Amino acid sequence: MGELATLAVILFLTIGLPLWLVLHFVTRWKQSREISRDDEQMLEELWALSQRLDDRIETLERILDDDHPNWREK
User: Fold this and answer.
1) Distance between CA atoms of 62 and 70, rounded to whole angstroms?
2) Is 37 exposed, middle or buried (0-12, 13-18, 19+ CB in 10 A)?
3) Which of 12, 22, 25, 49 could bridge across to 16 with cysteines, CB 3.0–4.6 Å?
4) Any idea where the domains of the chain sit in the sequence?
């Protein structure tokens, strides 16, 4: 009976465990390629924020151009 248990452990460690690890990480890899809805929403919010910040920078540059025409050279 002890030899059978040893054989079962050896078979599991040489065949079962590596196969399980490969299948596990292939599944994880396939899942990680897809973007979740929460991530997509966060990206949309970040994009909107970046657009607002870009508009604010352009406005500030226009104001500085009007008030101090050579501010970029300083």
Assistant:
1) 12
2) exposed
3) 12
4) 1-34, 36-74
